[in-house]
Amino acid sequence: MNLENSVGIVQTQFFTIEEKIKFESGIEFSPITVAYETYGKLNENKDNAILIIHALTGDAHAAGYHNENDKKAGWWDNLIGPNKAFDTNKFFIVCSNILGGCSGTTGPSSINPETGKPYGLTFPVFTIEDTIKVQKKLLDYLNVKTLYSVAGGSMGGMQAMQFCISYPEFVQSAVLIATTSRLSPQAIAFNAVGRNSIISDPAWNNGDYYDNPHKPDRGLSNARMIGHITYLCEEAMYNKFGRRLQNKDSYDFNFDVDFQVESYLQHQGQIFVDRFDANSYLYITKAEDYFDPTEKYGSLKEAFKNSNAKYLIISFDTDWLFPSSQAKEIVNTLMQLDKDVSYCEIKSPCGHDAFLLEYEVQEKIIKSFLNNHLKGELDE
Length: 380
Fold this sequence. Notes:
By secondary structure, the protein is of the alpha/beta class. It has 2 domains: 253 residues, Alpha/Beta hydrolase fold, catalytic domain (Rossmann fold), CATH 3.40.50.1820; 97 residues, Rna Polymerase Sigma Factor, Chain: A (Orthogonal Bundle). It has 12 helices and 14 strands. The strands form 4 sheets. The chain has an 8-stranded mixed sheet with strand order 1-4-8-5-11-12-13-14, sandwiched between helices. Helix 3 runs antiparallel to helix 4 and helix 3 packs antiparallel against helix 7. The radius of gyration is 21 Å and the shape is globular.
């Protein structure tokens, strides 16, 4: 455990939304329990809050440690803490688990209070906009009057973008990292193959597997393996694995694991099934597929026209899942609207995963944006 410049020991908290929330599908749904963590303190003016939004399979534990024996810090610990990019000496940081998740927030694995059984496929299909409605309810509960910033990478960036669109008067700035305004057909295809792997697993049982001895682990593992391929890039794969064999000098001439890259993907799939729910994967990837402000508002320009936020947009040159061209489309749209936008493409051999790995350069850019780019001073 490294407590240097750390937020230290933190605790996941829970908030339940009792009133019904109307989803984009038209379904009204409640109750929704939200798992969240906070770091730093909300100031007297209630205007120093930053909402951190996790990516596809993340959770609310963005920084610090849950106990003294915890060996692994939160997923963005290198960027959140005293004197870090998201400086807890200045800001009140909030991070919650996504709607439909399986790390404390209500999702398909949660118990339906009307039946006493997990929702399974009776859980309503939701969108990115629906996830933001839940995030806003949490911020209202925490008495946040305005967001100093909202930040996220990958799918977290989509949600941050939607927050600026849905609540333009509430958000002062946004940090959008390795993200896109809509998935490409190729990205949708990868999600579809992942979902099909889960649905094709005999143990999936039409989503009703929670009381069964066998779970759709093979399907979920395969979905994660497919996802991991998109998170890396050719350069990252060569640097990490090349064509090196796994603990052997020659081929086995059978269908067991020969290459290190095969072993790596199998390992990633195996550890994923221990922490994630197959149905949550189906729902969250579908929400990602549906995200398309251009289609909903008629154009990306129309979607952003009422936004008052200042933007920092970061992309990575080897990210082929959400390439820099997609980030530049957002930048160009904001420039056409005469919005305040800064853009940086970072060179990295890490592919899409760079937003979770390239801490040092991101820290400098984000810290500069948050501390210097915004006008006015926070109430100390």
